[in-house]
Protein 1
Amino acid sequence: MTPTHRQDASAFAPKALVFDVFGTVVDWRTSVAAAVRAFAVRHGLRLDPERFADAWRAGYLPAMQRVRSGELPWTKLDRLHRLILDQVLADFGVGGVPEPELAELNRAWRRLTPWPDAVPGLTRLRRGFTIAPLSNGNISLMIDLARFAGLPWDCILGAELVRHYKPDPEVYLGAAAFLDLAPAEVMMVAAHLGDLQAAKAVGLSTAFVARPLEYGPAGGADLEADRFVDLTASDFVDLAAQLGA
Amino acid sequence: MTPTHRQDASAFAPKALVFDVFGTVVDWRTSVAAAVRAFAVRHGLRLDPERFADAWRAGYLPAMQRVRSGELPWTKLDRLHRLILDQVLADFGVGGVPEPELAELNRAWRRLTPWPDAVPGLTRLRRGFTIAPLSNGNISLMIDLARFAGLPWDCILGAELVRHYKPDPEVYLGAAAFLDLAPAEVMMVAAHLGDLQAAKAVGLSTAFVARPLEYGPAGGADLEADRFVDLTASDFVDLAAQLGA
């Protein structure tokens, strides 16, 4: 456990920690690729599960942008995942799969494996802090995911509660408001610098935990903190240690 | 464990159970009276803690009505509790108590003892169902209360998420929407027939659990189910048994 930066953690006294989930808490790529692989085998399809998972995830930001721009009304992430899935299936030349099978495949996002340090780290952090997801995933998705992965949240916060997707400021400020805390008393934990930058811009504290394999061995993950980051930890257990939990 | 009614529970197949909290899950009166008693001793006050607790709770419905009517903008229950407290202190002739002591007394509503069956019953129900509070208490209050009482919720639902107080229909329908369930797939569990009537009116399933001592030995609690009730259980453990959890 060697943090890339070792700041003075005592300078930050958060009362609650809120977490990005996809990529930061759970390894979406491996899990979704495994679900796609099983789906392909079941239907006799020849496709590259990792490429399929990457294409599915690549539709994520553009789909949320359609909501942000007003092109779509507020739409839960489950539904956006499904819209993207339908397009990716077409792009991969897959057709004729019965609807219940597609609905089931879409639920792959509710069964994602946590990074190995996530549950022990959260369990330890929860002794000292209120902990909650602050994800773009909808509430029911987050409930199922917490059950699947054993994530010991105090409550489920996130985009759906304010009908804005991160990095809109409403999501971060809404979390502080629901927790009855000043923004600086809430620490956003994420593997994505853009998320932390948006959180910091409206006054939250920030912690960066790199997840170098989020996008697979070819890379693409944020590896180093930037100036929007108050604290850098090598994983959640290290974060708990730095925060004295 | 002898339920007062024994309906055919298999006729109801809820996927999630949502719970009234004050009175149904926790014994607010004993807990608040104990906090008031300690407060009175600390400040050398002569007052009847149970009467004080009853007066505090008696302000609850009128205070929410001020929000419902539009006289007050949306106001969290924590703040309403404090407005009522200030009035009750005046009515009991108490003055000159330092502000931090009053803020601390107001937090008595975050430290309420669960009825003896509540935690074992919820723990068992959680094996088969998503469980969440559906209270007029605000989110941060419910988080602290869940920690204090050891309530194993999957998430925190409630009035604050829709900025309406029960029995407004938005609260019940909002819960079903957040859970991605049809109203009938959500079962409202409460010791209060008015709550169940409002839930049933918008399509939720309903379960009644009597809490005869909610208002103390002098009575005042609902003791028998009425026609809005789908299921009656003697306590949460009996409810779990009837629902096959």
Protein 2
Amino acid sequence: MNTVQRILVILSLVVLAGVVLTTMPADVLAADTGDIGQTASALFGKNLDIWFMLMLVAFLMMFIKKYEWGVALAVLLSAAGSYIAYLAIQQFVFGEEIITQAMMVRAVICSITLVIAIGVFLGTVKSWQYLMVGLLFAPVYAFVEWFMANPDIIGAAAADPGGSILVHMCAAYFGLGVAMAIRDKRAFDEPMHTTTHSVTFVWLASMLLWMLWPSFVTAGLTDSADVQLGTLTCFMAGIGSVISAYAVCMIVEKKVNPLTYTYALLAGPVAIGATMLIVDPWGALLVGLIAGAVSALCFIYLQPRLCKMIGVLDVMGVHNLHGMGGWVGVILSCVILGTFTNLFFAACVVGITLVAGAAIGLLARFTRGKMDIIMDDDPDFIKNEEPAA
Amino acid sequence: MNTVQRILVILSLVVLAGVVLTTMPADVLAADTGDIGQTASALFGKNLDIWFMLMLVAFLMMFIKKYEWGVALAVLLSAAGSYIAYLAIQQFVFGEEIITQAMMVRAVICSITLVIAIGVFLGTVKSWQYLMVGLLFAPVYAFVEWFMANPDIIGAAAADPGGSILVHMCAAYFGLGVAMAIRDKRAFDEPMHTTTHSVTFVWLASMLLWMLWPSFVTAGLTDSADVQLGTLTCFMAGIGSVISAYAVCMIVEKKVNPLTYTYALLAGPVAIGATMLIVDPWGALLVGLIAGAVSALCFIYLQPRLCKMIGVLDVMGVHNLHGMGGWVGVILSCVILGTFTNLFFAACVVGITLVAGAAIGLLARFTRGKMDIIMDDDPDFIKNEEPAA
Amino acid sequence: MNTVQRILVILSLVVLAGVVLTTMPADVLAADTGDIGQTASALFGKNLDIWFMLMLVAFLMMFIKKYEWGVALAVLLSAAGSYIAYLAIQQFVFGEEIITQAMMVRAVICSITLVIAIGVFLGTVKSWQYLMVGLLFAPVYAFVEWFMANPDIIGAAAADPGGSILVHMCAAYFGLGVAMAIRDKRAFDEPMHTTTHSVTFVWLASMLLWMLWPSFVTAGLTDSADVQLGTLTCFMAGIGSVISAYAVCMIVEKKVNPLTYTYALLAGPVAIGATMLIVDPWGALLVGLIAGAVSALCFIYLQPRLCKMIGVLDVMGVHNLHGMGGWVGVILSCVILGTFTNLFFAACVVGITLVAGAAIGLLARFTRGKMDIIMDDDPDFIKNEEPAA
């Protein structure tokens, strides 16, 4: 596929987007469900589902055979650090006496944001440092959360019910900030050998994340009809990116790179975060089609260029899924709502998290000591492998 | 084990079934649960659970090491195509303005039916064709769904609350129809090498499908007491087939074939679909015992003969689990209810889906072009395998 | 690390525990959630979640490559036997006419207890014997359950809402009883070779068990505020053991043994069973810190000594997680409540289950016949492995 064809594919997607978005119905589908809103029972299930997703993010990143267990450990430690620090902030800084299911949901969303973020610099710090980064990330996240919900700054709060900005862009740019501060160029040369089954774990994680996503985007809603609409638009956006990421891989590279596809098929759910309540199901399908295509194209074209430019490797390609997926959500929500509010907040969040990430990354760099081998389980784990036959 | 012994085993199961079924209590156990029925919140959870099951069906079929990722891709694309086509039919043909949680549940059940069906002809069409088959399957399914719920045809609708006919038989015979039209005999000669871990993924999928099954069979119920009874009878039937499939494998083959057992242990939940609200827990246990034994026996004896007869390989043995499990449910429901209604609908569904499958299969055959290698990831995927030491 | 340092680590943990426990608030955090308690819908979800956990326990034990599938089969058969026997006892002995969601939850908790227990003697009996042990275990469990809930014995029932004694200690000591009766010393010499991916399945199981745990500990509660508090304290205890088990592994062994860590990180949730409603979140964090450290230390120091002493190998290290985790819960609950009630019940349960386990173990020993190979899939399964290149 030559450059002209590539540009044609991208242009046709943009034109398609423009046509459909401008004809999208202003009032969206939502029925009275006869339900009493989000009960504590319903939130209990979503609380666990989001923890489920947090654990699955580990398996999404466990494709490098020599570095599987260390990823799991890194996820557990960064989740642990950020969860307790977030709750401590709520109790002892904001003075919340009671920690409700809703508060627990906010805490695990803070943790999953960090777990996504560590994908950028995974394997380039020592295992105990994930705990440290977790403790330090929580105040940054709590500040961003407060900032985005604050209507006094530019007259309106961000319109981001499903976390396109708060979770995904925050994760991508915080991670990039840390990576740029650590600046370990050895990651570029690391052989990332996979096995059939190590990649099968990634398929498992991606497919289960995909189906759990409605729990994540609807967990903050209080109206039952919104939950219904958000569930539907999340699934439709997911279907959109399942299709378009496949199409882009096949058109551009003739074959599917499973480590591009299993990530890019989640771009629809990422982008729907900012748009889930302002599109109908067919609009959501389009959001997903666009996001999946953009994310797959970024894996193929943007990632090598961007990483070269900033001088560090985005190990797991976090920016292609969460960063770019977030931007798609932000831009589409601005188009549909006819306001630049989300764009303003997105730009601020990028700035805040890059700076905060760089600061925490510098601390990680100066405390990590000597690290002879990177992205490898060997320094951390005792093994009892089957001897070669 | 010789032929006489085999016949004795089968006969004793049939006699046991006859004795117990005729003594089964007519009125079944169901308590007022003090609940307000199936709320949208409860359906939200079941909606996700059925998507969970849909994804797990992929892993149930991922035992061939050289063809793991292609199975996942096939599942995603066929689900995507059928889901959007089913919702489009509901909105634009049947004029449903609002897509509720209940409607979303019906849509994902349509998709999981197709995902089961593709197991018959998996690996014998090109990857983009799963999307095409998905788009074409949805109208067939929507017609069968309407047909079975229609009380005007023979004076009564089918009694199939948990989908023995609508999902499982529909899947098995639609898949067989497609396979017979494609008629790729190379599947018989394909070496289906597994690894310990590829089969372990199948165990994972089977065991999680087993425990999620009550969400699937109770998702269409509106009465809380029915949900309770359906949960119980589904688990009891599942336990029945866990036990009887093991016994049959051990008695007939002396050892357990994991690819027979992990499938046949789900036959109880398949067969309970038509009988879940007309048996008590111990009757459900018996339904499961019979279904598990029948399914395991079909994997061992029927599959080689049937495939030779029809000239195509049922790649994943779909007919042994879903086809035969469905028949067990249909026959037992007719015996218990004393009516041939379900038998009539089952026969019609077999006919409709065989013909529709054959038609769509012919289209797939003429559009698939040249396909040098079948049941293999190589043509579709970029690999970065660990080099041999 | 020398012996002095080891003792210092342990002592400092004990002192920390003493200081914080005596300053723990007596009244704990619980808000009125405006919910109508545990509805049948909410229990439906927890019922399935606990079955999910039961299946995951299989994968927690599937790290020995030559013995993966047999573990799954053993789990299925022992769950099947115990579930139907428990329900039969409830219906035909205790005369329960209706089996509610709550009763189903109690039944699956009986089954998961046995599934934990078989980890002690896994691979040393024949596959059909797991079914037999299941049928025989249910009456033992039903008796223990009745015994612990009986306030007439010493004037108060056990205070164990989350099953530290009823599930975990019962499992550990029943399993030890069986193992001591079977007395197969060959287990000590068995090479337990793992692979990277077999251990990755253990990570998957451990991480998902961790996040599902609140469903397990709150399933027996009827008050919505208690459910909320139990969810929070369970997660906080889990975070505690994620951190302390890591710290102990790193301090004592310099590297993390994944088969120690993936188990010990669950010790907090085990120990919180008896204390979940009498601590605040920070107390729960401490409970988890202590339990994770104790469990990891037991894997490293106690297991080899204990197994030598009693002359049998605890194959999966059940006692280190469930036995010792249970003791931590019991002792801390006695300290906080200022009563020896739980200690009394724990001691009785240890005695009852050791004796019952030994009796059932003797039966298993005399019925198992000749067993040439132990802890191996070969005698039970047909394989179709990929030939070596």
Protein 3
Amino acid sequence: MENENCQVVLNKCSYGLYVVTSHLDGKINGQISDALMQVTACPPKVALSINKNELTHDYILKSRVFGVSVLEKKADLSIIKNFGFQTGRKINKFEKIKYVLGKTNSPLLIESIAATFEVEVFEDVDVGTHRLFIGDVIFAKMIENTEVLTYEYYRKRLKSEIHPNSPSYLEEKK
Amino acid sequence: MENENCQVVLNKCSYGLYVVTSHLDGKINGQISDALMQVTACPPKVALSINKNELTHDYILKSRVFGVSVLEKKADLSIIKNFGFQTGRKINKFEKIKYVLGKTNSPLLIESIAATFEVEVFEDVDVGTHRLFIGDVIFAKMIENTEVLTYEYYRKRLKSEIHPNSPSYLEEKK
């Protein structure tokens, strides 16, 4: 099957946009993700797919925890640029970002978000380019019960860029 | 952590709505799911979380394949009632539904959908009430490149019901 056509089809699936964060040895990092979903309600568990090249992947793999900040629809798009298009290996992504440290010590955003929650990983699955982390939601907080930013809205309405490390990345034809 | 509050927060995550189908021993079945996401782009892989009580779960667990029909925004809501609120153990859900059998022999809808794809499962993970099926997308087809139905739109705009077996089910306060 031709991969590009497949991705056009798979882009009909719907996602939110999240800042996924973690920590290791006193350092913090985070990145943009759309590949997150709830997998059970009682008790609440989620799954996250993250590219193995990402620094946040390495932090989660070792710390076994991550934080999720759910971006709101009217989020400042500089947040996506900050977390999605540069690497924490070269800069401190949190330098100009307001945040708190959660119960898992993962940083959680304060602005431009609808909600936050934190996850303790109990299983990870190697799925090739990415790793799937599955965990228990151990803390959750509504910040502002407002409309959230979806991948669809970000991509089509805002005509914005998608990072090649996204599971749903589709290369533009030249 | 109080479970109900957690679910209110987790409902800020975004999902699409899909008819997930499979087959076993010449029988076919399908159900509504929102718990589906792409986990890698190259090659394309997806993960699906499905309640262990569902007949479609049993079919996928044994046949190791499933089909996905991505509901469009203007989908006939009787499809959700048909696939989401009755069990294939008692009735044939496909009796009044137009469908084709895909390459995996999973039924794929023809009407009210934007796209279809089929998955060969390579791994499953027991996550408690649900099982997570992870697989390769082996066939994908765009039916109509139109707006899709999201969980958010279904739940809020259409004020519609959610089945208790959904990973994102939230019991209404009486």
